[in-house]
Amino acid sequence: MRILLIGGNGFIGRFVAAELIRQGHAVAIFHRGNTAAPPDLDEIRGDRNQLTAGTDEIKRFAPDVVIDFVISSAPQAEALMNFSRGVAERVVMLSSIDVYRAVGIANGTESGPLQELPLTEDSELRRNLHPYSPENMQMLRQIFSWATDDYDKIPAERVLMNDRELPGTMLRLPMVYGPGDRLHRFYPVVKRIADGRRHIILPETLAAWRSPRGYVENVAAAIALAGTDQRAARRVYNVCEEPSFSELEWAQNIAAAMHWDGKFVVLPAEHTPAHLLKPGNTAQHWTASSARIRRELGYKEPVAIDEAIRRTISWERENPPAGTVPAQFDYAAEDAAVESHRLN
Question: Please, which contacts does 273-280 make with residues 24 or more away whose CB atoms are closer than 8 Å?
Answer without folding.
Answer: 273/201, 273/330, 273/333, 273/334, 273/336, 273/337, 274/333, 275/327, 275/328, 275/330, 275/333, 276/201, 276/202, 276/203, 276/334, 277/203, 277/206, 278/203, 278/206, 279/108, 280/106, 280/107, 280/108
